[in-house]
Amino acid sequence: ETEMSQRHRAEKERDEALKTSAFMQQMLESLGRSKAPGRDTTVLREMMDAAAKRITDGELTEAPEAELQLRLTIGDTYRDLAAYDAAEMMLRPAVELARQLPGGDESQNEAQAAIEENAGAAARLRQRSLESLVSLYDAWNAAEPNKSHGEKAAQWRSKLHLWQSTTQPGKSPQPAQCRD
Hints:
Largest sheet: none
Helix content: over 70%
Order of helices and strands: HHHHHH
Structural class: mainly alpha
């Protein structure tokens, strides 16, 4: 096989991989959790896990542009499913991959933004969860004053403030207050 035909074949494979990647991106965007609240996302998660495994096993090594786009799409879908660790595993290598591509600065910025959005989504979920626990125990204590409920509310409030102080610069922990 001549060098010209090898280059032509490589370009054809790259184009096919990019077309497949674009098709999958469109499909995933239409199936994402944000488009179908309240639906069972088990099948979607299984699809993402299977696709992610194929990517991490190196199936798209010869098509780095397609791999990058799929990593970003799958990472975003994982984030929509609140699977933040899985999203991180897809997104983190995307930055290095983008660096290796010609003109990769824009792709690198896109990958970095996706990583930051994933981290922010996980942090917002964690904060809402802690706030919900504090509110729950406060409500129980208000409805039925009870030392145990008040102590639990104070414990969760302390955890919330400690978490905020370690994740949000400039915020110092606030003492827990027990509402009796």
